[in-house]
Design a protein that fits this description.
Elements (H helix, E strand, L loop, with lengths): L2 H22 L1 H18 L2 H10 L8 E8 L8 H10 L3 E7 L4 E6 L3 H8 L7 E3 L2 E13 L7 E6 L18 E9 L2 E9 L5 E11 L8
Antiparallel strand pairs: 1-2, 1-9, 2-3, 3-5, 4-5, 5-6, 6-7, 7-8, 8-9
Length: about 220
């Protein structure tokens, strides 16, 4: 059995087990899935993450606030070697919030993010304080098909909407970023961030996870 076949079999088996568990214990399935995604990120197992992403389904129920996890490190861009040490100390990103009625959402960050933005994107004025967090980097979301393999149905997040005035500077090119999200089990989602370069190439630069806040009082 080849390494890729072994990874595919292992990922399929684990996802099948999680989905069976979700039928009777959805919260436990989300927690175990979250822990597994964190492990894959720590190992840099992007092949297995790609397999899991391809087995996901397009979510049609994203609404409200979700906890976020950067799965592993950024890759595929020159700036990754600068960003990853900072993310290891404090990821700043807390998650995403979706409004199903308007089809608009935003990212949530820790309060200190506003000071970091003054350095990496000084002209961006879209951050605002919402409770204990900062909200910004708005997006429109809709069901679409993935831009790169595996080209499965996804929830696509578009940051390029002009009215949102998201930054497109080299150090923080979020305006040229598209997030794609699939559901692994009810309430547990795997996402990937795609960057369109100035040449038109679409690059995969990161994986992330989301889960409903109903799990927040139980540590994984």
């Amino acid at each position: 059995m080849t390494s890729s076949t072994s990874s595919e079999t292992k990922s399929d088996s684990l996802l099948t087990d999680l989905r069976r568990l979700a039928d009777t214990s959805p919260v436990l399935a989300r927690q175990q899935g979250w822990h597994y995604l964190r492990q894959l990120g720590a190992r840099g197992a992007r092949d297995q993450l790609a397999i899991l992403f391809g087995r996901g389904t397009a979510p049609d129920d994203l609404d409200g606030a979700y906890e976020g996890l950067i799965v592993g490190k950024l890759f595929g861009i020159v700036e990754a070697h600068l960003a990853n040490p900072l993310l290891a100390v404090n990821p700043t990103w807390r998650g995403k919030t979706f409004d199903a009625v308007s089809g608009i959402g935003f990212n949530r960050l820790i309060p200190l993010a506003r000071y970091a933005m003054r350095v990496v994107a000084p002209l961006y004025g879209g951050l605002e304080r919402v409770g204990p967090e900062m909200a910004g980097f708005r997006f429109r979301f809709r069901t679409d098909v993935g831009l790169i393999a595996p080209k499965v149905p996804v929830c696509a997040l578009d940051y390029g909407v002009e009215e949102f005035r998201n930054p497109s500077v080299r150090t923080f090119p979020i305006k040229r970023t598209r997030d794609e999200i699939v559901e692994l089990t009810p309430g547990l989602y795997l996402g990937r961030a795609l960057l369109t370069t100035y040449s038109g190439e679409v690059r995969l630069i990161a994986y992330f996870a989301l889960r409903r806040f109903v799990d927040e009082d139980v540590q994984s």
